UniProtKB/TrEMBL annotation:
CDD domains recorded: Ferrochelatase_C (cd00419), Ferrochelatase_N (cd03411)
NCBIfam families in UniProt: hemH (TIGR00109)
Positions annotated to bind Fe(2+): H183, E264
Name of the protein in its database record: Coproporphyrin III ferrochelatase
GO MF annotation, one: lyase activity
Presence of keyword Lyase: yes
Enzyme class of the recorded protein, top EC level: lyase
Annotated EC: 4.99.1.9
Amino acid sequence: MSKQRIGVLVMSYGTPESLDQVEAYYTHIRRGHPPTPEQLKDLTDRYEAIVGGFFPLRENTNKQVQALEDRLNADHPDISFTCYQGLKHAVPYIEDGVEQMVKDGIEQAVGVVLAPHYSTMSVGGYIKRAQDKAAESGLQINFVKSYHLHPQLLEALSQRITDTLTRFGDTSRDEVRIVFTAHSLPEKILEMKDPYPEQLLETSRAIAAQTGISNWQFGWQSAGQTGTPWLGPDILDVLQTISSEKQFKHVLVCPIGFVSDHLEVLYDLDIEAQKTARELGIHLERTPSLNTDPLYMGALSDVVYAQCERK
């Protein structure tokens, strides 16, 4: 008897693979409207600032997708899992991933986004695109909506807090301000009663409880330049406030909304926020990204398998 076959559509934001793809990528983000020369230069400069233009997100995503496939097949040897990528703003697009599953003869699938927290504007958008293509193709697919309180995810993040606190040397942990961050979204999600802000706070509270820290706060980062208000305060403003109130000279940032090293982590935190911190005389550290951490892969494996059991 042959094994049951399940396709797993692993979705993420996507990134260009080289500098010459940045304009096409940015145009797609802007829904077909090319960026101005100034906007294009700003984004290109940011990529060039990260190890001379190395594009880590694509490679990290490839590794995460392969690691999840390996973990699923190890955890559930009675099922044959194959993972497919579906990217929001780069090839292979979400629709391409669904199409490839159908071509490969997959009849049952699960979709999961490499983002633990649900928002109608982020994860919800990924799911809608995949659902629409699956319906058109006759593919049965269930979705993981969020996994922000999965025990293995919390354990992986808590370990990173504990380990990174050691970088402050003899400084008491009470003298280190912990700032949890995630990608900002337009403020209008608040009127929609979107669960995103509260899910992020739930994760933050759970990690704080698990690690025994009390001096923490939440900050946003990487807001888009759209002319409409985005959720704040931004991490740069948070650092300014911490400095002006002279409460802390040591700050540990834990970007719980991001699961791998990419532009928002390697530039917005490691370059931009670090520059601000140095100017303010703050010792800033960041927790390492999850990437292919076995605990994170275990959490993803669990939530994907839970959707397999639903008919």
